[in-house]
Amino acid sequence: MPAPPFQVRTTTWACSVCGADTPRAYRMGMYAIGETRFNLVRCRDCGLVYVNPRPAEATLGAMYDDESYYTDGYNLGVEDQNYFERKDELIALAGVAWERIEEETEGQGRALELGSAGGFFLEAARRRGWDVSGVELSPPAVRYCKGEFEFPVFEGWLEDAPYEPQSFDLAIADNVLEHTTDPRATLRQLRSLIRPGGHVLVIVPTYVNSGFFRLMNLAQRFLPRKLLGPKLCGMLKFDDSDGGYPYHILEFNRANLVALTKSAGFEVLSVEGSLPRPAHLFKAKDLSLVNHLWKGIFILLDHLMGLRLAPAARIRLLAKRPVHSTE
Questions:
Q1: Do 200 and 282 fall within a single domain?
Q2: What is the sign, positive or negative, of the torsion defined by CA atoms of 286, 290, 292, 297?
Q3: Beta bridge partners of 168
Q4: Which residues pair with residue 273 across a beta bridge?
Q5: Does any domain span residue 42?
Q6: Are 294 and 281 contacting, i.e. CB atoms less than 8 angstroms apart?
Q7: What is the pLDDT of residue 164?
Q8: What is the extent of the structural domain holding 298?
Q9: Which of 69, 95, 236, 276 has a beta carbon 3.0–4.6 Å from 124's, enabling a disulfide?
Q10: Domain CATH for 131
């Protein structure tokens, strides 16, 4: 395993949702930075799964400063291409997402995205008439965004961003909270930036904290790897797959994500589950019979997750800052 281009430091911590320090082993050696292995534990009180010990703040910052993140870590094993190479595709997909957001909220306004990456989601909103701003920690992503688009993006931590309280109609945290060391504080900071009656949209991956993951951990010894193929084995995070850097230091489930959002002062409006669709099944022109079967299974599971008949691999939560709130 190659040595990382930065020093690895770690720190221990308690559950960042309920505060309990009662972890039990969940998946040992799940991730690695060079020779340093990282374990997943599960809170006995609220069920949050988290990396413990986790990378210290300086190590986390160094991880996101590595441009390889946008080829490997950012894609969750779902996509084959580098994130930046998917510019046109991602702007088009974001446009569809914004149509729905406008139906759920109050139409165009001022939007802030935390973890705005290369800016594709915000660019789609800008083209629809939104006034947009971003906050992004990764220097490579900020450089790309500033070179491509004409809207403000702040490089750094949310609490340092130069935005006025109650100045946004909508805040988005799409695949962000799982990277944070204090998700409640992050949501409270977003709440302070949203006007009363404004909305927050949160999307997080939840597969690793789902019944499917626990079932796969038990069943993988009996499942033939050839039937699944290396891409699916990696996506399902089998023991013999390379977990990579511990980008996701938190893994939520529906219950603790809802509880966390409410405790941050939001009124939860909707929660729905879904399943990411792997590119090697849904973008390939020629599929084998086996892969056609897997594609059908993914479509079925996605439908069942949307109906809450199967544990979700990804959760989309829409919440509102109460109209009469002032703090």
A1: no
A2: negative
A3: 194
A4: 315
A5: no
A6: yes
A7: 96
A8: 276-311
A9: 95
A10: 3.40.50.150
85 vs 241: CA distance, rounded Å: 25
- Number of domain units in the chain: 2
For 230-274, how does the pLDDT look when each residue is reduced to its tens digit (9 = 90+)? 777 777 787 766 678 899 999 999 999 999 999 999 999 999 999
The more confident residue out of 280 and 158 is: 158
In this predicted structure, what is the pLDDT of residue 294?
A: 82
Domain match, 166 and 307 both: no
- Write the pLDDT tens digit of every residue in 130-189: 999 999 988 888 999 999 998 999 999 999 999 999 999 999 999 999 999 999 999 999
The position carrying tokens 């957001």 is 101
Give Cα 119 to chain centroid, integer Å: 16
Could you tell me which residues come within 8 angstroms of residue 169 by beta carbon, excluding any fewer than 6 positions away?
105, 106, 109, 110, 111, 194, 195, 198, 199
157 and 265 share one domain: yes
Q: Are residues 101 and 125 in the same domain?
A: yes
Q: Rounded to an integer, what distance in angstroms lies between the CA atom of residue 90 and that of residue 12?
A: 37
Query: 172 with 199: CB under 8 angstroms?
Result: no
Residue 143 burial (10 A CB sphere; 0-12, 13-18, 19+):
middle
Q: Which amino acid is at 151?
A: F
Residues 6+ apart with CB under 8 A from 98: 124, 125, 128, 130
Picking from 248, 230, 127, the residue whose alpha carbon sits closest to that of residue 176 is 248
pTM of the model: 0.91
Within a domain: residue 182? yes
